[in-house]
Amino acid sequence: MKVDDIPKNTVILKIKLGHDPDSLNVAVGHNVETSDFNEEGLSFIDDLVAGLGLQIEHSMDTILAMGRMSNMIRDMIEDEDDDIAFEPDQKLLDALDNKKNGNVIPIKKKVH
Predict the structure, then answer these.
(1) Predicted TM-score of the model (pTM)
(2) Which residue among 8, 9, 52, 53 is least enclosed by CB atoms within 10 Å?
(3) Phi, psi of 103 (to 5 degrees)
(4) Average pLDDT over residues 86-91
């Protein structure tokens, strides 16, 4: 991709997939109109582009682990509707009703 093909003030991440995980081709590019940013903003953009490239090139295992965790969380959230509801045993309900003579100790929350 040529710089002129990138929209103005845009950072792109291009990943060309290969047949196996070791054949990824990663490119990070940008088309930044320097007059639109102050020195601090340009430094941020430069650090962002360099950091993205470095992270992808040298920390693929970390990125994959974060992706797996994200997918697991998504799956857990989707499965929450199918959770089994807690149904207390009658002995527990009787013990909670019989506070004075039961073996259940109430725990009071302290409010500070």
Answers:
(1) 0.56
(2) 8
(3) -100, 10
(4) 84
